[in-house]
Amino acid sequence: MVSKKLKVTNSEGFHMRPATNFANAMAKYSSDIKIKFNNMEVNAKSVMNLIAACIKFGADIEIVCDGADEEAALQEAAGMIESGFGEE
């Protein structure tokens, strides 16, 4: 199991477009991928769970990956969040 703590930097947080892009990117990994936020653990492969978590700009989150491809999953997940999902 690997994890990384991050801050959400895009101005709208996990709204529909980034949540969809993020969930689709994580779906290709066999590892379990969770986001810990506000004492919740959210399935990062579920668009609806990501949106329902109300993860906004500036939120402190932790990505937790567990499985055969956990390192690659964590690297891609962190890269997407650190880049602000390509938003300004």
UniProtKB/TrEMBL annotation:
The HPr domain covers 1-88
Asked whether the UniProt record includes Cytoplasm among its keywords, one would answer yes
UniProt KW Cytoplasm keyword: yes
SUPFAM superfamilies per the record? Answer: HPr-like
Sorted alphabetically, which keywords does the UniProt record give? Cytoplasm, Phosphotransferase system
Q: Superkingdom of the source?
A: Bacteria
In terms of Gene3D superfamilies, this protein maps to:
HPr-like
This protein's major location comes to cytoplasm
Q: State one Pfam family annotation.
A: PTS-HPr
**Localisation:** Cytoplasm
Query: Which PANTHER family does this UniProt record tie to the protein?
Result: PHOSPHOCARRIER PROTEIN HPR, PHOSPHOCARRIER PROTEIN NPR
What is the protein named? HPr family phosphocarrier protein
The record lists the organism as Anaerovorax odorimutans
